[in-house]
Amino acid sequence: MSTSTVPVFDPVALTQSLIRCPSVTPADAGALDVLAQALTALGFVCQRMTFSEEGTPDIDNLYARLGTQGPNFCFAGHTDVVPVGNAGGWTVDPFAAEIRDGKLYGRGTADMKGAIAAFVAAVSRLMAEQGAPDGSISLLITGDEEGPSINGTRKVLDWMAERGENIDVCLVGEPTNPRVLGDMIKIGRRGSISGWITVHGTQGHVAYPHLANNPVPRLVRMVSALLAEPLDHGNDFFQPSNLEVVSIDVGNPTTNIIPGEARALFNIRFNTQHTATSLEAWIRAKLDATVLDPARDGADADPAAFYTLKMTESGEAFLTQPGPFSRLISDAVQAVTGMTPELSTSGGTSDARFIKNVCPVAEFGLVGQTMHKVNEHIAVEDLEKLTQIYQQVLTGYFAIGGRI
């Protein structure tokens, strides 16, 4: 494809087309079709795949690649969005993609259809000006980032590994900037695990406690033990890990019944001083040491008989060490915005937690102030700036032969 025949995409118009697909997880609603059509016009080979797992919705995904040789620069993201929430609170149709006073409104503008459109526009400009790069450019796009994250990026990566499809670096287009474009690049993320504690007792009359076994005091001791001391004090790149108890529930509507069960739910966001495995071992040791009532249960009582613990891991903590990749992105941000972005590991999780297993990964996208909110929007001028940043990143990457 000669440079004169390359279609050049407008990031604003492409974002609008994506927003008009109401792709609330797990629905695709045509979003990947819009994206695949644009990428095919640029010469990408697009491969669609649907993954399934019992108890979870089927998810449509897309892997598209321009070129066959290395190095392979990958852009990753998601076309699925969260629900609109309070529809009556929106001042615009959340899927109409209206522009008002220089702002583009719609669910997914910030998180993260705008970044996807900007990347496609950046590739189109690069090709129109310079032709295809000496290497490959790819997109890994899922419809499951806002959902269970089971049939999305992680399974696409497995599919790629089975076929010997390698990526050398990856830029995720999550909305990383807290206030203005240029604030922040994410070079890592905290890990996340959740736990459900169920303490088993014996229901009975409150006037006859010797005939019952109240689980509530046990649960109180157990939760108190988990919160008694900080997990750590942070490190050079991460804030301290935090354990948050988000629910304690008995489900008892009366005052004269000792309940038969008591439950607590907690989440831990942890840094690189821990793993999910080490934290689960720590939690079980704390719970085993506090669940028993020595005066009542006896010295030989088995702690496991009094409670159950279910743990789920959303992702491990990771860090992409500051270096050539983060400098490449930072230099592009500074050239376009005049700002030196902070290298951060703050915030929640993203699909970078899966990608970090195969290559260096960093995140940079739009301003996230309104993501997941009513009247989600972005500044139109930020889309143009982000497109310029992505184009400079690509130019810089291939100028050095991908040696990062």
Distance between the termini: 28 Å
Secondary-structure element pattern, one letter each: HHEEEEEHEHEEEEEHEEEHHEEHEHEEH
Give the beta-strand count.
19
| Helix-strand makeup class | alpha+beta
Shape verdict: elongated
Counting copies of identical and different chains, the oligomeric state is single chain
Q: Count the helices. How many?
A: 10
Low-confidence sequence ranges: none
Task: Summarize the biggest pleated sheet.
Answer: 6 strands, mixed
Quote the beta fraction.
Answer: 15-25%
What's the Cα radius of gyration? 25 Å
Assign a percent range to the helix content: 25-40%
Question: What average pLDDT do the residues reach?
Answer: 96
Physical arrangement of strands within the biggest beta sheet: 1-2-6-3-7-18
Report on this model:
The chain is α+β, with helices and mostly antiparallel strands. The protein is built from 10 helices and 19 strands. The chain has a 6-stranded mixed β-sheet with strand order 1-2-6-3-7-18, sandwiched between helices. β4 (99-100) and β5 form a beta hairpin. The longest helix has 22 residues, at 109-130. The protein starts with 10 loop residues before the first helix and ends in a 5-residue tail after the last helix. The mean pLDDT is 96.
What is the fold's blueprint, element by element?
Elements: H1 11-19, H2 31-41, E1 45-53, E2 56-66, E3 72-78, E4 99-100, E5 103-105, H3 109-130, E6 136-142, H4 153-162, E7 169-172, E8 184-186, E9 188-189, E10 191-200, E11 204-205, H5 215-227, E12 242-249, E13 257-258, E14 261-270, H6 276-291, H7 294-297, E15 307-315, E16 318-319, H8 324-337, E17 342-344, H9 352-355, E18 361-363, E19 377-379, H10 380-399
Parallel strand pairs: 3-6, 3-7, 7-18, 8-17
Antiparallel strand pairs: 1-2, 2-6, 4-5, 5-19, 9-16, 10-14, 10-15, 11-13, 12-14
